[in-house]
Amino acid sequence: MIADVFANALKCAMEKKLSVMELLRTVGELQGANENALAVALYREWIGHNHDSPLIYAVYFNYGVMLTAAGELASAKAAMLDAIRVNPDFYPAYINLGHVCERMGAAGEGVNHWFALVNRLGQVTGENADFKTAALKQVARVLERYQVDPKAEEALHMSLSLNANQNDALQHYVSLRQRQCRWPVIKPWANVTRAQLLNGISALSLAAQTDDPMLQLGNAFRYCKTQIGQAKVSFTDRHAALKNEKGPLRIGYLSSDLREHAIGFLTAEMYGLHDRKKVEVFAYYCGPALTDSTMDRIKAGVDHWSDLTGLSDEQAARRIADDKIQILVDVNGYTNSARTKVLAMRPAPVLVNWLGFPGTMGSPYHHYIVSDAYIIPEGSERYYTEKVLRLPCYQPNDRKRAISDRKPSRAEAGLPEDAFVFCCFNGIHKITPFTWRRWMEIMKAVPNSVLWLLDGMPPTNARLQELAVEHGVAAQRILFAKKKHNPDHLARYPLADLFLDTSPYGAHTTSSDALWMGVPVLTFPGRSFASRVCGSLVTAAGVPELVCAGPDEFVARAIALATDKGELAAVRAKLAANRDRCVLFDTPLLAAKFEDLYREMWADYVAGRLPKPNLANLEIYNDIGVELDKDDVEMLTVPNFEDLYKEKLAYKADFYHLCGDDRFWPVAS
């Protein structure tokens, strides 16, 4: 019996007759029997009677790990400190000690312990380098979380200098440079090449880096292959039985953002509008452990709510499979807290990519991408591994969104009363040097104007004001809107005269927010998904005249609207008249059309026509796109974009194993 095992081990420990290996083996037995309290007690007694053991530092460490798992953080911290006291060169204890401090709310102290390890590892050997890079990444993660971006970037720079083959560090490094407007974003240095940075960039960051849908396709495939991989567990053996299910289709929506987040704000109303005669709605939440009013609304609008946050990937996939979901909608894609490895286990027969991520997943298991005819026009399907299905407008909107009753004045918002207010409330990471130059050209042509941006970190705000001065625009004309709760944020939109879009990653939720509040949005499309969403929304709002043909027309049109108050007033009046009848805000129509697509998808599955993702040659397209990307070239302005790929493919044909697909290969000689 396990009680006898514990009693015997305890006696031996007190008599100093239990070796470290025997201790660890007995602790394993106790844990296997779910007797964690006894395991903790055994550790405690062993430590109390074996202070002279040369391996006591390792016992302190393991004891601390167990206490951490049990949530006894103060005791865990003490154990890790004891491990370091006994053996200051036992590096894993520093890593874990930092995590414990962070969990205790003392993130600064945790950073100090990680830096202590970095400073202790002066000489870089193979093992030392691993510990040093790990400590630096932990430092960067905490600093990034607390928005100390320059120092976080510095820590990642040091970590990558030691080892450039760290995908997570590369992703965060590029992302940090984007949200600081550190241009050029892709800036190689001695030990890190441009190709390494571009190969490590996240799919979401790449959407803001370049309007190159072929590179985005290759990048998504590369990420899926190297970071998600092939699942060891699969639920495909359950799929066939679902063909015989009667009644409404069982639809699951999987997302970490069913809360006060852009996705939650957009979709909150839609779930409750589904026709229950046609679909039964399941929501699977995988985000932070919290509750808020948006989440409460979503819970009320679905038939079933499941929180997957504390479950392993296999447990989460099993939960979905046990619910007999027929069509699972991935509303995350490659975004924060996504559970893509759950999808890799294929917990439902049909998997759909929609809304959360602006592009293809490049995966072998996403069968469909739901878009509209503007975002993915006919002829652009080759940029997607999924089969393209289209709604009238792909983005849902919440017509019952909360808006503050208190309408602020311009003075309260820090805006001049008599100026023309250009605004852009997109994330600052979406601003590129090309976008900035266009904005500055507009500002110079409209002297009595200001540019109102969403607030960034103070160093980033200062950098943008300095960049304005370099372009001949006074720093005080660049103003920043402090972050507010969404109802208050929406209420201040009408203080702006015209919303200027970014490129290549344009306004998505921010665009529909502006249009709902009656603020015209000026944009122009590129080729990629993220660059075409805003044009889709503006067109669906009934003001297609605000979609320009390209960057030159965008600049000219912005200047014209700012100087012709009559034309701008007419556009605003049209927006107001269209709001309650346009396609953009017809959420019941979107829900109904979505149900039509679900029936089409299920019919494909039952008939054996389920589309198979086309993954041919995608590594080659990624390699070519990395070669083509240049800081001084805005890809969306390159007219012969596809010809560049064809030329490179022809050159590389002898060095790659290429197979036929429906994109560019084989290349005509």
Describe the model:
By secondary structure, the protein is α/β, with parallel strands linked by helices. It has three domains: 2-227, Tetratricopeptide repeat domain (Serine Threonine Protein Phosphatase 5, Tetratricopeptide repeat, Alpha Horseshoe), CATH 1.25.40.10; 236-399 and 588-606, Rossmann fold; 420-585, Rossmann fold, CATH 3.40.50. It has 28 helices and twelve strands. The strands form two sheets. It has a seven-stranded parallel sheet, covered by helices on one side. α22 (509-516) links the parallel β11 (498-500) and β12 (521-522). The longest helix is centred in the first third of the chain and has 20 residues, at 126-145. The mean pLDDT is 93.
Count of the domains: 3
CATH superfamily of the largest domain: Tetratricopeptide repeat domain
Largest sheet: 7 strands, parallel
Biggest sheet strand line-up: 3-2-1-4-5-6-7
Specify the number of helices: 28
CATH topology of the largest domain: Serine Threonine Protein Phosphatase 5, Tetratricopeptide repeat
Low-confidence stretches: none
Assembly classification:
single chain
Helix content: 40-55%
Radius of gyration: 28 Å
Between the first and last Cα atoms, what is the distance in angstroms?
Answer: 77 Å
| Strand content bin | 5-15%
β-strand number:
12
Q: What overall form do the CA principal axes indicate? A: globular
